[in-house]
Amino acid sequence: MTTTERFSTADVEPSERLAFWNRIASQTYAKHVVEPRSAAFGGSLLRRSYGDLCLTQVTTTPAVLRHEMADSPCESEHALLSIQDAGSCERWRDGTPSRLTEGSLALNMLSFTRTISFEEPIRFIILKVPAARLAARIGDLGTLEGLRVEAEDAAMLAGFLRTLLGCDEPATDPGWNTALGDVVFDLIALTYRRVVSAAHPHPATRAESGERWRRTVREFVDHHLGDPELSPAMIAHRLGVTPRYVQMGFAGMATTASAYIVARRLELAARLLSSGDRPISEVVFRAGFGDLSYFYRCFRKRFGVSPKRYAAQLR
Q1: 206-313: which CATH number, 3.40.250.10, 1.10.10.60, 3.40.50.300, 3.40.190.290?
Q2: Other C-beta atoms within 10 Å of 96: how many?
Q3: Cα dihedral across residues 42, 31, 191, 170: positive or negative
């Protein structure tokens, strides 16, 4: 279900505006500190959520924005696509400056600190997306972080996002967010096609592309082993691909998605058992198994002994 929220510093007392803005911005993106260039700071924020996507339009008076490194795993799982909708700004990451002008786009990873400075009122459109799903569509985010996408290349994506922000909320429809997410990620992939080609002038071979995809899937599975909802369908949804595409990736590793998940969970359970005197129930929970008897059967089949005997042999 789509939700819309509006915030403005005009709604709070002048003495409370800066603290109010820093709190709202930090809730929307990551840890966020604004240093106004004058005492008369003001800002407004329109925030819409579409499933696992968060779309925001931000307008502020001149300031310096400091985004600090994400301090929680949940934050670091996301990336920001920032469109300079009006005005211009200077952006620093690790002491390296870049300039964004009207219509240009930059990818920002929440695992990095950065500073944005502007001396005139500006407006941003910011799209917050799952980093793994984005990487599955456009490749290694680390090589694209901070690269400027020119206004003409970002125009289709920017136009679509402006339309979303200007529309009334859609009627409640269980499939709306899924369909919208597919369109958004298709537009992002088209937007970055030229940028990726310029950053990597020698195209990857099909084998290299396949290995990159398999690495993305393996890393996703390992990061979510403790989630009992982890499944081929969840992987497909979170990475923005079809279930068949997920299965094809695992077929390239001579296994299936379900078998790989169970194997990795059993390896995690074995490590937990060997690291100390943990209750079996805790091991089962942390390894993502929802059924104790199923865990016992799988563990005995894999290691030839029960979990309790396995732990005892290691003491």
Answers
A1: 1.10.10.60
A2: 9
A3: negative
Rounded to whole angstroms, how far apart are CA atoms 205 and 132?
Answer: 21
Domain boundaries, the chain: 3-199, 206-313
- The neighbour count for residue 48, using CB atoms within 10 Å, is 19
- Correct CATH for 3-199 of 3.10.20.440, 2.60.120.10, 1.10.1200.120, 2.40.30.110: 2.60.120.10
pLDDT at 69: 58
Locate all alpha helices (DSSP H) within the chain, ordered by sequence. Answer: 17-28, 73-76, 131-138, 141-144, 151-166, 176-199, 206-223, 232-239, 243-251, 257-274, 280-286, 292-303, 307-313
Of the candidates 27, 86, 23, 32, the one whose C-alpha atom is nearest the C-alpha of residue 60 is 86
Per-residue pLDDT of 218-261, as tens digits, reads 888 998 999 989 998 888 877 767 777 788 788 878 888 999 99
**What is the tens place of the pLDDT at every residue in 197-217?**
665 555 555 556 667 778 888
Q: Do domains 3-199 and 206-313 have the same CATH topology?
A: no
Assess contact for 299 and 307: CB atoms under 8 A.
yes
